[in-house]
Amino acid sequence: MRPSIRALATVVVLAAVVVISPVPASAAPLTMLGADVSTLQRALDLGARYYNASGVAADPYDILKSKGVNYARLRIWNNPVSGYNNKAKVLQQARAVKAKGLRLLIDFHYSDTWADPGVQTPPSAWASHSLSQLQTDVYNYTYDICSSLKAQGTTPDSVQIGNEINVGMLWPQGRVTNNNFAPLASLLKQGYNATKACNGGTQVMIHTADADSMANARWFYDGIRAQGVVWDVTALSYYCMWHGTLANLHNVITDVRTRYGKPVVIAETAYQFTTGNADGTGNSIPGTVLCDNIPATWAGQAQQFTWTQNTARNAGAIGVFYWEPTWYAVPGNGWDPRNINGSGNGWDNMAIFNWSGQVNPSVVWTP
């Protein structure tokens, strides 16, 4: 996810009502009830306050836990200009996460800034490196971050080798062109091997934003599997306004789960709670863009998230992560790591905290 660029995309309004059946008695519970809280440390450093449903100030991790969260996701950038989401800050935030009894997912972007389906820019320090050098870079960097986390008692429970890598990572060397998955596969293998060398019990996820298309998901995961890539969990992003109906999501989850024989996680999802905008930066997802006729209200946000969880559970997924639920409009916590003070927040209508920092009382994570 990259808020500024997503805002420029053409958005299709999904107005058809989709009825999700009750959870069948045979459905296994969701065990990974996650929240990506990558901007939270910056918000707290700026003095942001968070309030529970009763309007009482509280630790945001405690508020999330009271909502059912048991897993925190943190992205890591190699050398961002902002000085946030780098190694030092991730180590710091990982201590806070583990101190609250939460499990930890580290999201490697292998970049100094946002990596997503539209851009996968190598870190500046790796910009001129050959594919062979990048293989070494990925191994060494992944091992260093994982082992540093382990050394301080915050071993990651899971890691992602890349973020939304629909057509590869570390472009151009690791980009899939002419259906050639070999370069990308060589990088993914290094990330997997480094993680397992650090800690054999840490799960390795391969993450794409292919929840919209069974064909796209098969193209990608078939491609890396044919090259001998091994992974533990298949991770997908799902934003209903970009990735289609819940019925389609159910079909994609079911297909990738059975086709590859691996657990499936929705690594990112979210829904808007307002049509308004808290700052001068346009919202990534306008509040008028609705799914299933669900309104952009607190009740609507909670309903869409519940339906997404129900769909994932019914399809046999093991977890759902809400993307940046704590990223409400705090001046100085902008989207652009090159100008974190001067850029705004395109996600202020998608967080589960309103612009005063009070949590949506209706949003819950449900096993």
From TrEMBL:
<keyword id="KW-0732">Signal</keyword>
<dbReference type="GO" id="GO:0045490">
    <property type="term" value="P:pectin catabolic process"/>
</dbReference>
<keyword id="KW-0378">Hydrolase</keyword>
<comment type="similarity">
    <text>Belongs to the glycosyl hydrolase 53 family.</text>
</comment>
<dbReference type="Pfam" id="PF07745">
    <property type="entry name" value="Glyco_hydro_53"/>
</dbReference>
<dbReference type="InterPro" id="IPR011683">
    <property type="entry name" value="Glyco_hydro_53"/>
</dbReference>
<dbReference type="InterPro" id="IPR017853">
    <property type="entry name" value="GH"/>
</dbReference>
<dbReference type="GO" id="GO:0031218">
    <property type="term" value="F:arabinogalactan endo-1,4-beta-galactosidase activity"/>
</dbReference>
<protein>
    <recommendedName>
        <fullName>Arabinogalactan endo-beta-1,4-galactanase</fullName>
        <ecNumber>3.2.1.89</ecNumber>
    </recommendedName>
</protein>
<feature type="signal peptide">
    <location>
        <begin position="1"/>
        <end position="27"/>
    </location>
</feature>
<keyword id="KW-0326">Glycosidase</keyword>
<dbReference type="GO" id="GO:0015926">
    <property type="term" value="F:glucosidase activity"/>
</dbReference>
